[in-house]
Amino acid sequence: MRLNKFISSSGVCSRRKADELIESGKVLVNGVVANVGTQVDERKDKVLVNGQEVKPTSNLLYFKLFKPKGFTCTASDERGRRTIFELVDVKERLFSVGRLDYNTEGLIILTNDGDFAQKLAHPSYEIEKEYIVKIEGKILESELAVLRKGVVIDGERLPRAGVKLVKVEGDRTRLSVVIHEGINHQVRKMFEAIGKDIILLKRVRIGSVKLGGLKRGEYRPLKAEEITALMEGK
Ligand code: URA
Q1: Element spanning 147, H or E
Q2: Which of 76, 92, 141, 159 has a CA 20 to 30 Å removed from the CA of 166?
Q3: Which ligand 1 atom is the nearest neighbour of the CA of 185?
Q4: pLDDT score recorded for residue 42
Q5: Is 100 in the pocket of ligand 1 (CB under 6 A)?
Q6: pLDDT reported for residue 204
Q7: What is the pTM assigned to this prediction?
Q8: Are residues 164 and 195 in the same domain?
Q9: Which atom of ligand 1 is nearest to the CA of 198?
Q10: If you write DSSP's letter for every residue of 93-140 in order, what string do you get?
Q11: What is the DSSP letter of 92?
Q12: What's the domain range around 170?
């Protein structure tokens, strides 16, 4: 088996990242610094990444989690804040597919399949991500048009977005926003650009996978058809 595949199926990182680790001399096979393209025999070769032994798992795991507000999506947080990985009682090391901000809640996908995580999170993948956004006050038709066309920040236009007004609730407004990219803070930037304060930001769908009936902090394995749909970009 190729070394990068061995490492990615050990849940360490994607194959692409594995190649970077190999190129930077951080991977040893039987005590010898490896090259990209090194072949390994998974029954007898000993592979160390950054000094730690890694072994492939045939047990690929895929979950959906309802990330509550007030959790980070990083493996560890330098400010000691809680991370989403504390919510999941699974021995295997998991990655999140993309990230949600600390103050955003909603659907996040977790997996130990490094290639799947990297593929889905890649900007070129363009899978739909749907958010519910609650703002203070009302929104004008002209402001909706600006959001749909793509707001301009510092001379740069953010991508178009699908934006629908769902409901006016007293002095608050609920909207649905569909984006395809994974630009940092994309939805918050959109509303900031039109001077609207977001009170709630919640991701409710990635492709055809919905948050469904999960409660905050709950997770469950993805169904086989959900995994296949995501792999096909649906
Ligand atoms: N857009 C944001 O601004 N924040 C998120 O967490 C996700 C999308």
Answers
A1: helix 141-149
A2: 159
A3: 3
A4: 82
A5: yes
A6: 98
A7: 0.83
A8: yes
A9: 3
A10: --EESS---TT-EEEEEEES-HHHHHHHHSGGG---EEEEEEEES---
A11: S
A12: 128-206
For ligand 1, atom 3, name the residue with the nearest CA: 185
CA R_g for the chain: 20
Q: How many CA atoms lie within 13 A of 192 on its CB side?
A: 10
Residue 56, pLDDT score:
84
Residue with tokens 């959900």: 226
**pLDDT number for residue 144:** 98
**Which one of 188, 191, 194, 197 would you pick to mutate in the ligand 1 pocket, going by the greatest count of ligand atoms within 8 A of its CB?**
188
Number of domains in the chain: 3
DSSP secondary structure, 166-199, as one string: EEEETTEEEEEEEE-S--TTHHHHHHHHTT--EE
Q: Are residues 7 and 116 both part of a single domain?
A: no
pLDDT of residue 182: 80
Indicate whether 75 and 140 sit together in one domain.
no
Q: How far is the CA of 160 from the centre of ligand 1 (A)?
A: 15
Do 73 and 118 belong together in one domain? yes
Ligand 1 close to Cβ of residue 104 (< 6 A): yes
Q: How far is Cα 144 from Cα 148, in angstroms, rounded to an integer?
A: 6
CB 157 within 8 Å of CB 151: yes
- The SS3 call for residue 163 is strand
Same domain, yes or no, for 132 and 201? yes
In eight-state DSSP terms, residue 49 is E
Stretches where the chain sits below pLDDT 70 are none
